[in-house]
Amino acid sequence: MENGYIMKKKRTSSVFVSSKWFFAEKPVIYILLFTYLFLTLLPLVWVLSTSFKSNEEAISLPPQFIPTNPTFDNYLFVLTEPHIMHSLFNSFLVSIGSTILSVAISALGGYAFARFHFKGKNILLSVILGLFMIPVLINIIPLYIMFSQIGLLNSLIGLILTFQILIIPLNIFLLKSYFETIPRELEEAALIDGCSTLGVLRRITIPLSMPGFAIAAVLAFRFSWNEFILPIVLANKPDSIVFQVALYEFVSLYSIEWGYLTAGINIAIIPILVLMLIFQKQMISGLTLGAIRH
Amino acid sequence: MLILKSFEPYLFLLPSIIILFVFLFIPLIWNVYISLHDVSILTIIKEWNFVGFKNFYNIFSDYNFYNSLKVTLVFVCGSVLLQFGFGLLIALLLNQQIRASGLFRTLFIIPWTVSTVITGFSFKFLFDDSFGIINYVIEKVGLESIGWFSDPNLAIWIVIVANTWYGAPFTILFLTAGLLSINPTLYEAAIIDGATKFRRFFYITLPLLKSFILTNLILVTVWTINFFDLQLIMTNGGPLSSTTTLSLYMYKQAFEFGYFSEGAAVGILLIIMNIAVALVYLKLFDVRNKKT
Amino acid sequence: MAKLKILITVSFAILFLFFISPMKLIPIIAQEEITLTAIFAEPKERWDVLLENATKILNERHPDKTIKIDYRVLPYSDTRTQILTAMAGKTPIDLISLDQIWLGEFAEAGFLSDLTSNTQKWNKSSDWYVQNWEGGLYNDQVKGIWAWTDVRALWYWKDLLDKAEINPDELENWDGYISASNKLNQFLQKDGIQGMHLVGAAHSPDMWYPYLWMIGGEILEKRDGHPTKQNYWYPTYNSDFGVRALQFLKDQVDAGTKPQINHYWGQEFADKKFAIMLEGSWLLGQFDKNEWDTLKEKIGMIPMFPVPNSSNTNTSTLMGGWLLSIPETSQNKDLSWELLTIMVEPNVLIPMLLQQGYLPTQKSIGEGEYSAKLKSTIPYYEELVSLISLGKGRPNIPEYPIVAEHIRNAIEQVYNGMDPKQALDEASKQSAKALGW
Q1: Number of alpha carbons in the 13 Å side-chain half-sphere of residue C33
Q2: Are residues C121 and C49 in the same domain?
Q3: Which of A50, B19, B225, C431 is least enclosed, having the fewest CB within 10 Å?
Q4: 3-class SS at C156?
Q5: Per-residue pLDDT tens for B90-137?
Q6: What 3-state class would DSSP assign to C7?
């Protein structure tokens, strides 16, 4: 079963002859791109290099790109701190749980918007869009008090549920767009054959939307893995602390051990980076595709 | 069975609605409640007295509030302009016929995939007064090292730079999507008609990108107004409150001073500000949001 | 293709989880297990030392139980924030470290449990220095136990002063201090060493109060006519005394001393980045223990803050330190109290004091039977202890943290060029409001 719509979109990226800025000469373009690439990667490369230096060497002058005495000590230190490893584990649990939940919920919601016409559809859509206007922080205190009364404080489940508010609006739009690119005829054919709506969803729509799900999942994971303001208030016990918070608190306000910190930073980047590398094509084409339909 | 069928869309939407209602909407209402009562560290576990608009009055008579407004203006304008500028430029460049555009795109996204904690500390390290590599390079070329984080006029710009680094990829992707949606035959026709690159850009690309640019600007601006992670991590609002944006001001009122109700009041003001900004953009672009 | 990628991802995730899960803490299941939770402020080493011994002793006293202490050590302001949110959400916490300046606020808010009856049974209060015991009282109830204290004094590197041909006595008055800083900067600049250390960090008010106090000023004063309380505290730190004291700081900046935004608890002095530093007695903890017996040859200490003129003004200093408190939300109040008492027992406390260079709040440790070890180990011990009587604490009232923020802001403004009187007047206006006037 070929998905004609998606194929059509893909072809534009290779044969595109777009408008050109006035200095369209190829070498200039490459120079600009490489400059921006350099600026983009500089902070992270520098942090990577520092993570292999001892704490003293990290802040000594002159700074060297290649450490004079490369050491794995920083990584060893971070990875053998039970507190930090525990937080890493928590982050994983929360991120994975949050991803699964949000993709499931957003898929259902996105499908509803994509396929049905119902009363209040436009209003609901605008409301969900409007939710972007609310700064997340503003809800922390009420959430905190609410959680403490229900007993969800310092629990990973509580975090998983709270993170949904960061992800659901975005993923609903994303998956809505994806579902809209799947030809209705296929679904209608199955419906005529006696399939229930859920069955159609399960057997036809979902398999075809795998790329969309992939991006929704990656985005959900990214938001959950990187979030640190919500957990710092809602889950501040050693048992339920997540990695970004542990990293942040690992650092003293007054003196920072940069060797350890940069090692911790690199460890935090790994899961996201790996995900990105595996799903890079989907991520890019999916994010842009989702936007096109908007 | 038929009735159930017509309820299907609502059933499908139910989980989302429940979660958003409980975890986003109810706290919001509670917030409004808090902003109208006296809730501070001293009263939090005791009684909350109703005080009407007193908290808003307190905010409006605090000169730090006005300072934060000013800082927010600088921060938002700087961040949005830089993010949009770079984002548009890179999106356009990547759309040319160049090799490895996919690879470039992947690498350019990396800043957006790391967390704000990582971004904040990385830039703090880079720009440190004494051992930062930036100052080292500056001194190497013979200039005097700059106190990036100790100069009230400079610190905010470092935060803006970090924010741009972090947020530009989103704009790049978003506008790339827009560029990809433009039918290439339009350009081919224009080239045949003899249009210059300049004219092709202004008469084809920009107009067709309009809705993408609008959405992008609204999202980026609102996110920047609400954002405070980097300000907290890199400078904690200093020096001399020169990096205390309104969002950070809200955080400090609530969590550093323990003035929860004032914090809630500022939050309400932020929401109003966001909506106002979105409306202004819509008016400027003269577009009526049509939903399909 | 997408399926394959998902498979890879899931496998990777499982591998990663497998890799890190063995390092997860595995709870020991034995007897009755109790875990006490605590929130403490940095630095971490002091708590590690204290709690290791205290926990051991506590468990020995209760063989039928296995007691663990789950303590979080956080940066200063995060400690306050976390305690605040924990209390607001009624999260059970068993033990907290309190900065003396938070006591009034937290006690007024209802966060702290009343330890009065506990202390009466314990009957050790007479061993405490009076100011330190009273520092833990609020409305005549015991809300915290002041576990250790510190005083701030003037430290200098003897060889650097010699190099610049400065006699330490010159540092004892304001004019001499300024002229010394000029000389030091001249001599030491090329070595990359700064002459004086001036605090530009969050605790700058603490380093300013001694100057205010020594010339007769006060931070706050009780006044009549308060809108709701009839008689309450009013800011008086913008008096002429305050302006004069702040002018002295400004003079230092004008003489070329740069206010330091970052603070490393004396490490920067130990690393010889500064020739002179006014710092707390904890500075000693930054030096290697084996250096302590020869420290007096390298480092000089003057037990004072410089005074306006060397003749008849008594110096002053700030007393700090940490209190231990048991939150109202604790569900193990008795056990926590017991732990607290063990932590301040001389046998348990002294090893920590020795390691960190802190000063005791108990007379038996300061001057009595336990003092010998400290006297012989900690350099300048007796001089530092003598400063305690000249030390003042900060106000114990709920609004103090906010007032301190206003003062800090004023100091920062003056560092950046504002006139001291203007800065202090603006700050005191805000403080007055915060105090309810």
Answers
A1: 8
A2: yes
A3: B19
A4: strand
A5: 888 888 777 777 788 888 888 988 889 899 989 988 888 777 888 888
A6: helix
For an interface test with C, the pick among A81, A213, A253, A283 (most C C-beta atoms closer than 10 Å) comes out as A253
Q: Which amino acid is at C373?
A: K
> What share of chain C in percent tops pLDDT 90?
33
The CATH number of the domain where C22 resides is what?
Answer: 3.40.190.10
**CA separation (Å) from A116 to A119, B59, C218?**
10, 46, 72
pTM for the whole thing?
0.81
DSSP H helical ranges for C306-362: 333-343, 346-356
Please check the confidence at residue A251 and state whether its pLDDT lies above 70.
no
- Asked if A145 and B25 count as a contact pair (C-beta separation under 8 A), the reply is no
C9 within domain boundaries: no
Q: What is the pLDDT of residue A3?
A: 37
Q: Range of C180's domain?
A: 151-316+397-434
Would you say residue A159 has pLDDT above 50? Answer: yes
Contact B205 A44 (CB under 8 A): no
Task: Identify whether residues C133 and C240 lie together within a single domain.
Answer: no
Displacement of CA C6 from its chain's centroid (Å)? 52
Residues of A in contact with C20 (CB under 8 A): 85, 88-89, 92
Q: Determine the residue of chain C that is closest to B254 in CA distance.
A: C81
Question: What is the phi/psi pair of residue B266, to 5°?
Answer: -60, -40
Assess if residue C8 is contained within a domain.
no
Q: What mean pLDDT is predicted for residues A263-268?
A: 87
Mutant choice from B4, B124, B133, B224 vs A, greatest count of A C-beta within 10 A = B133
The DSSP code sequence of A231-260 is HHHH--STTT--HHHHHHHHS-SS---HHH
**Does the domain made of B34-291 have the CATH classification 3.40.50.880?**
no
Instruction: Examine the domain organization and report whether C275 and C129 are in the same domain.
Output: no
Q: Are residues C236 and C103 in the same domain?
A: no
Indicate yes or no: CB of C17 within 8 angstroms of CB of A255.
no
Say whether both C331 and C308 belong to one domain.
no
Shortest alpha-carbon distance between residue B19 and chain A (Å): 7
Which tens digits make up the pLDDT trace of A172-221?
888 887 787 777 787 777 777 777 777 777 777 777 777 788 888 888 99
CB count within 10 Å of CB C317 equals 28
Check residues B100 and C436 and name the one with the higher pLDDT: C436
Within-domain flag for C10: no
- Same-domain status, C374 and C324: yes
Answer whether residue C7 is part of any domain.
no
Tell whether C4 lies on the interface with A, counting CB pairs under 8 A: no
Map tokens 């310092």 to a residue.
A154
* pLDDT tops 60 at residue A11: no
**Contact assignment for A153 to C21 by CB distance below 8 Å:** no
CA-nearest residue to A232 within chain C is C82
Kindly identify which residue of chain A lies nearest to residue C71, measuring between CA atoms.
A238
Q: Which residues of B touch A111 (CB under 8 A)?
A: 12
CA distance A249 to chain C (A): 6
**Does A251 sit within 8 Å of C91, measured CB to CB?**
no
Round to whole Å and give the CA distance between C181 and C166: 10
Q: How many domains does chain C have?
A: 2
- Which tens digit of pLDDT belongs to each residue from C120-141? 999 988 999 888 888 899 988 9
Q: What was the pLDDT predicted at C147? A: 94
- Both tokens of C168, joined, read 């330490």
> Do both C425 and C343 map to the same domain?
no
Residue C116: pLDDT over 90 = yes
ipTM, two decimals: 0.80
| Same domain assignment for residues C352 and C376 | yes
